[in-house]
């Protein structure tokens, strides 16, 4: 099964998502036995199930109009990105400046490959973190995964 170009799909659904005060975090296509198209959607303060259901009902007919799957059956999902979703885009980093993040590195840094630290700044080349009172710059190519730390009060 072939889906249409993902950029064309995103361009089609983006106005509806943004008109509802939300942002499209990522779109994901899975082919094979159970093909699916999943939109990961978020908004300031977090997204709720009612909003996801509303967006699903608004997006579904738009995708039918452009025949997104070339007539083949597929499953449409609208989902929150999840608390531990890895950062992929610049805005993921910028939204979390000043917050604690979990970092996994490809190689050890000061004896550790995995730790939690405060995100101080972001550039296209590196992130600056603060850990145990010490500021460090880590190049993006050293980072295997970085996501917001889940904190329980």
Structural descriptors:
single chain; 153 residues; alpha+beta; GMP Synthetase, Chain A, domain 3; SH3 type barrels; five-stranded antiparallel beta sheet; elongated
How does this model look, in words?
- Helix content is 24%, strand content 39%.
- It folds into two domains: 6-79, RimP-like superfamily, N-terminal (GMP Synthetase, Chain A, domain 3); 90-148, Roll (SH3 type barrels).
- With 153 residues, it is of the alpha+beta class.
- A five-stranded antiparallel beta sheet has the order 7-6-5-4-8.
CATH architecture of the largest domain: 2-Layer Sandwich
DSSP, total strands: 8
The CATH homology group name of the largest domain: RimP-like superfamily, N-terminal
CATH class label of the largest domain: Alpha Beta
Spell out the helices and strands N to C.
HEEHEHEEEEE
Count of spatially separate domains: 2
Assess the beta-strand content as a share of residues. 35-45%
Overall shape: it is: elongated
What is the spatial order of strands in the main beta sheet? Answer: 7-6-5-4-8
Low-confidence segments: none
Distance between the termini: 46 Å
Q: Approximately how much helix is present in the residues?
A: 10-25%
Our count of helices gives 3
Structural class: alpha+beta
Average pLDDT works out at 93
Radius of gyration: 18 Å
The description of the largest β-sheet is: 5 strands, antiparallel
According to CATH, the fold-level topology of the largest domain is GMP Synthetase, Chain A, domain 3
